[in-house]
Amino acid sequence: MLKPIVFSVFVLAALTGCYKRDETHLNQKCTKGCAVFNFSVMTGGNLNAPVPGAYVDLVWEGPKQEIGGGPSIDVANGYADAQGRISFSFKPIGDEFTSGDFTVTAKSTADYIKTLQYFENVRRADTVLNATLALPSIAHLKLIYKNFDPKNQNDAFSANPNYRLPYVWQGLMLTSSDPTNYPNDFFDIYQKPFDSLTYVGNTAGNAYTYFQVVIKRNGLQIFHLDSLYIAKGDTGTYTLDYQRSFQ
């Protein structure tokens, strides 16, 4: 059996789509000759803690060559048990195992980040799929940039914050303290110098937030990976000075 290809997308907002969804076969029982999809919904930087009661939604999405998107079928949904586990058994009603992809949405209470995970190349109707669904909890980041004073056209400054979960590095959506002049947290010669600038936003809780630091200053180039552990619900502060050398 070919191993399914899997990758993930992690989002803060509600997931939307324009596919034609067929809900008439949702949660149909299957007892013989079934495909079985077993999921464990886990959280934390090492995915070592279950998320009891997490909601899981399995959908098949057909080829998307059509204008407005291809067809889709709501296969099954339900809530994970106390160990974060849920299992779906089903038979295809059409082309689920000959084309298209399976997508799985996982969500929980408001202190978790809703996620979407794709499973490609699932091509046997008797597939037994075992997978972990990452469901990061929410923590908060306060990112402070200091003393930016570019001198030439190659100067640049950024922390590039993100968090890591299986199959994806997820960049953060941060809000600037001065969105008119500094809407984004990447700075070059075209931005005015500043003494201090703050960005805030959500990140993964009980996990490390990583910073892919870039400092280009008067011909000096610094590329540095840094990290900050933030517990669920807490606010972590990371300060980056343009004059820093990391030595």
Q: What's the gist of this structure?
A:
This protein is an all-beta fold and 247 residues long. 0% of the residues lie in helices and 53% in strands. The protein has a six-stranded mixed β-sheet, with no helix packed on it. Strands 12, 13, 14, 16, 18 and 19 form a six-stranded antiparallel β-sheet that branches.
CATH level-two architecture of the largest domain: Sandwich
Query: What is the overall number of helices?
Result: 0
State the distance separating the first and last CA atoms: 51 Å
Tell me the overall shape: elongated
SSE order, one letter for each helix or strand: EEEEEEEEEEEEEEEEEEEE
The residue fraction in helices comes out at under 10%
Spatial strand sequence of the major β-sheet:
1-9-8-5-6-2
Largest sheet descriptor: 6 strands, mixed
Q: Please state the CA-atom Rg, rounded to the nearest Å.
A: 22 Å
The SS-based structural class is mainly beta
Number of strands: 20
Average pLDDT across residues?
Answer: 88
Task: Identify the CATH class of the largest domain.
Answer: Mainly Beta
- What's the name of the CATH homologous superfamily of the largest domain? Immunoglobulins
Uncertain stretches: 5-19
Number of domains: 2
Strand residues, percent: over 45%
Please outline the helices and strands.
Elements: E1 5-10, E2 20-22, E3 35-43, E4 49-50, E5 55-61, E6 71-79, E7 85-90, E8 101-107, E9 115-120, E10 128-134, E11 138-148, E12 156-158, E13 161-165, E14 168-171, E15 174-176, E16 186-188, E17 194-204, E18 207-217, E19 220-230, E20 235-241
